[in-house]
Design goal:
It is built from four helices and eight strands, in the order ααααββββββββ. By secondary structure, the protein is of the alpha+beta class. The chain has two domains: about 90 residues, no CATH class; about 80 residues, SH3 type barrels, CATH 2.30.30. Helix 1 crosses helix 2 and helix 2 packs across helix 3. The protein is elongated.
Length: about 200
Protein backbone atom coordinates (compact mmCIF):
# COMPACT_ATOMS: atom_id res chain seq x y z
CA UNK A 1 0.00 0.00 0.00
CA UNK A 2 2.88 2.38 0.75
CA UNK A 3 4.30 2.12 -2.76
CA UNK A 4 0.86 2.92 -4.20
CA UNK A 5 0.80 6.07 -2.06
CA UNK A 6 4.37 7.03 -2.98
CA UNK A 7 3.79 6.48 -6.72
CA UNK A 8 0.50 8.38 -6.53
CA UNK A 9 2.11 11.26 -4.67
CA UNK A 10 4.91 11.47 -7.25
CA UNK A 11 2.29 11.63 -10.02
CA UNK A 12 0.28 14.24 -8.09
CA UNK A 13 3.40 16.43 -7.66
CA UNK A 14 4.25 16.18 -11.36
CA UNK A 15 0.68 17.19 -12.27
CA UNK A 16 0.35 20.05 -9.80
CA UNK A 17 3.83 21.52 -9.34
CA UNK A 18 4.04 25.16 -10.39
CA UNK A 19 0.31 25.47 -11.01
CA UNK A 20 -0.62 27.24 -7.76
CA UNK A 21 -3.57 24.97 -7.11
CA UNK A 22 -4.82 24.28 -3.60
CA UNK A 23 -6.70 20.99 -3.32
CA UNK A 24 -8.93 19.93 -0.48
CA UNK A 25 -7.65 16.95 1.49
CA UNK A 26 -10.13 14.50 -0.02
CA UNK A 27 -9.28 15.67 -3.57
CA UNK A 28 -5.58 15.24 -2.91
CA UNK A 29 -6.08 11.77 -1.41
CA UNK A 30 -8.29 10.61 -4.28
CA UNK A 31 -5.81 11.84 -6.88
CA UNK A 32 -2.89 10.19 -5.07
CA UNK A 33 -4.78 6.89 -4.77
CA UNK A 34 -5.99 6.95 -8.38
CA UNK A 35 -2.55 7.65 -9.82
CA UNK A 36 -0.95 5.15 -7.42
CA UNK A 37 -3.36 2.32 -8.22
CA UNK A 38 -2.96 2.87 -11.97
CA UNK A 39 0.85 2.98 -11.63
CA UNK A 40 0.85 -0.23 -9.57
CA UNK A 41 -1.50 -1.95 -12.06
CA UNK A 42 0.76 -0.94 -14.96
CA UNK A 43 3.77 -2.30 -13.08
CA UNK A 44 1.98 -5.58 -12.33
CA UNK A 45 0.97 -5.91 -15.99
CA UNK A 46 4.51 -5.17 -17.17
CA UNK A 47 6.00 -7.74 -14.78
CA UNK A 48 3.38 -10.31 -15.79
CA UNK A 49 4.51 -10.02 -19.40
CA UNK A 50 8.17 -10.55 -18.53
CA UNK A 51 9.11 -14.15 -19.26
CA UNK A 52 10.89 -14.79 -15.93
CA UNK A 53 12.20 -12.81 -13.03
CA UNK A 54 15.98 -13.23 -12.65
CA UNK A 55 16.72 -15.89 -10.02
CA UNK A 56 19.48 -13.76 -8.53
CA UNK A 57 16.91 -11.36 -7.11
CA UNK A 58 16.10 -12.06 -3.50
CA UNK A 59 12.68 -11.23 -2.08
CA UNK A 60 13.88 -7.88 -0.75
CA UNK A 61 15.54 -6.97 -4.05
CA UNK A 62 12.44 -7.91 -6.05
CA UNK A 63 10.28 -5.80 -3.71
CA UNK A 64 12.69 -2.90 -4.17
CA UNK A 65 12.63 -3.36 -7.95
CA UNK A 66 8.82 -3.39 -7.99
CA UNK A 67 8.77 -0.28 -5.78
CA UNK A 68 11.19 1.54 -8.06
CA UNK A 69 9.33 0.59 -11.23
CA UNK A 70 6.01 1.62 -9.65
CA UNK A 71 7.45 4.99 -8.59
CA UNK A 72 8.74 5.56 -12.14
CA UNK A 73 5.34 4.57 -13.51
CA UNK A 74 3.74 7.13 -11.17
CA UNK A 75 6.02 9.87 -12.50
CA UNK A 76 5.24 8.82 -16.07
CA UNK A 77 1.50 8.81 -15.33
CA UNK A 78 1.71 12.35 -13.95
CA UNK A 79 3.66 13.54 -16.97
CA UNK A 80 1.23 11.96 -19.44
CA UNK A 81 -1.74 13.44 -17.61
CA UNK A 82 -0.23 16.93 -17.49
CA UNK A 83 0.92 16.92 -21.12
CA UNK A 84 -2.00 15.14 -22.78
CA UNK A 85 -4.77 14.29 -20.30
CA UNK A 86 -5.63 17.74 -18.95
CA UNK A 87 -5.61 19.46 -22.38
CA UNK A 88 -7.78 16.66 -23.81
CA UNK A 89 -10.34 16.91 -20.97
CA UNK A 90 -10.50 20.73 -21.39
CA UNK A 91 -10.97 20.33 -25.16
CA UNK A 92 -13.66 17.67 -24.70
CA UNK A 93 -15.59 19.68 -22.09
CA UNK A 94 -15.48 22.79 -24.28
CA UNK A 95 -16.65 20.81 -27.34
CA UNK A 96 -19.55 19.35 -25.34
CA UNK A 97 -20.29 22.84 -23.93
CA UNK A 98 -20.03 21.60 -20.35
CA UNK A 99 -17.89 24.65 -19.61
CA UNK A 100 -16.17 27.29 -21.70
CA UNK A 101 -13.14 28.26 -19.63
CA UNK A 102 -9.92 26.31 -19.16
CA UNK A 103 -10.44 25.64 -15.43
CA UNK A 104 -7.06 26.97 -14.39
CA UNK A 105 -6.75 28.55 -10.96
CA UNK A 106 -6.11 32.05 -12.39
CA UNK A 107 -5.73 34.01 -15.61
CA UNK A 108 -1.99 33.95 -15.01
CA UNK A 109 -2.03 30.13 -14.90
CA UNK A 110 -3.97 30.11 -18.17
CA UNK A 111 -1.34 32.31 -19.81
CA UNK A 112 1.53 30.23 -18.45
CA UNK A 113 -0.03 26.93 -19.59
CA UNK A 114 -1.05 28.09 -23.07
CA UNK A 115 1.14 26.44 -25.70
CA UNK A 116 2.47 29.39 -27.63
CA UNK A 117 5.96 30.59 -28.48
CA UNK A 118 6.79 33.78 -26.62
CA UNK A 119 8.72 36.30 -28.73
CA UNK A 120 8.83 39.49 -26.61
CA UNK A 121 8.17 40.25 -22.95
CA UNK A 122 7.83 43.81 -21.68
CA UNK A 123 7.78 44.53 -17.95
CA UNK A 124 6.44 47.93 -16.84
CA UNK A 125 8.10 48.95 -13.59
CA UNK A 126 7.92 51.79 -11.08
CA UNK A 127 8.77 55.19 -12.47
CA UNK A 128 7.30 54.55 -15.92
CA UNK A 129 10.21 52.54 -17.38
CA UNK A 130 9.59 49.44 -19.51
CA UNK A 131 12.17 46.64 -19.63
CA UNK A 132 12.06 44.47 -22.73
CA UNK A 133 13.27 40.94 -23.45
CA UNK A 134 13.17 40.36 -27.20
CA UNK A 135 14.00 36.68 -27.60
CA UNK A 136 14.93 37.07 -31.27
CA UNK A 137 17.62 39.67 -30.44
CA UNK A 138 19.33 37.66 -27.71
CA UNK A 139 22.91 36.89 -28.71
CA UNK A 140 24.05 34.47 -27.50
CA UNK A 141 20.65 32.79 -27.35
CA UNK A 142 20.08 31.61 -23.76
CA UNK A 143 18.50 28.25 -22.93
CA UNK A 144 16.01 29.87 -20.54
CA UNK A 145 15.28 33.47 -21.62
CA UNK A 146 12.91 34.26 -18.73
CA UNK A 147 12.07 32.93 -15.27
CA UNK A 148 8.76 33.87 -13.65
CA UNK A 149 7.91 33.05 -10.06
CA UNK A 150 5.92 34.33 -7.09
CA UNK A 151 8.60 36.83 -6.02
CA UNK A 152 9.27 38.41 -9.41
CA UNK A 153 10.74 37.97 -12.87
CA UNK A 154 14.29 37.32 -14.05
CA UNK A 155 15.06 37.96 -17.71
CA UNK A 156 17.67 38.99 -20.21
CA UNK A 157 16.93 42.67 -20.86
CA UNK A 158 17.63 43.49 -24.51
CA UNK A 159 16.30 47.04 -24.27
CA UNK A 160 14.24 49.54 -22.29
CA UNK A 161 11.90 52.46 -22.80
CA UNK A 162 12.25 55.48 -20.52
CA UNK A 163 9.34 57.57 -19.23
CA UNK A 164 9.25 59.54 -22.50
CA UNK A 165 9.10 56.37 -24.61
CA UNK A 166 12.67 56.59 -25.89
CA UNK A 167 14.14 53.14 -26.61
CA UNK A 168 17.65 52.14 -25.55
CA UNK A 169 19.17 48.83 -26.71
CA UNK A 170 21.25 46.66 -24.36
CA UNK A 171 23.76 43.91 -25.02
CA UNK A 172 23.18 40.83 -22.87
CA UNK A 173 26.73 39.54 -23.37
CA UNK A 174 28.95 40.07 -20.36
CA UNK A 175 32.58 39.07 -19.81
CA UNK A 176 33.84 36.25 -22.04
CA UNK A 177 30.98 33.67 -22.16
CA UNK A 178 28.83 35.40 -19.52
CA UNK A 179 25.37 36.83 -20.07
CA UNK A 180 23.62 39.49 -18.02
CA UNK A 181 20.43 38.34 -16.30
CA UNK A 182 18.20 40.94 -14.59
CA UNK A 183 15.95 40.24 -11.60
CA UNK A 184 12.87 42.44 -11.13
CA UNK A 185 11.14 42.09 -7.74
CA UNK A 186 7.38 41.64 -7.83
CA UNK A 187 6.80 44.83 -5.85
CA UNK A 188 8.32 46.89 -8.71
CA UNK A 189 6.20 45.34 -11.47
CA UNK A 190 3.13 47.28 -12.59
CA UNK A 191 2.25 45.38 -15.78
CA UNK A 192 3.63 42.71 -18.06
CA UNK A 193 3.01 42.44 -21.81
CA UNK A 194 3.70 39.21 -23.72
CA UNK A 195 3.95 38.89 -27.50
CA UNK A 196 3.50 35.31 -28.63
CA UNK A 197 2.83 33.19 -31.68
CA UNK A 198 -0.28 31.03 -31.38
Amino acid sequence: MQIVQVAGYIAYKVVSIGKGRAHRTEDLLLQVLTFGVIARALTAAALWYLPTVPAALTDSLSVAAVAGITALAGGAMGTIWRVAGEPFIRWMMNRMRVYTDDHESSVWESIMNYRAKWTVVQVHIDGGRVLEANFGEMVPSPKVPIIINEDGIAMYVTGSYDEAGVYKKYDIAGNEDDTIFTYIPRAMIKQMDVAWRV
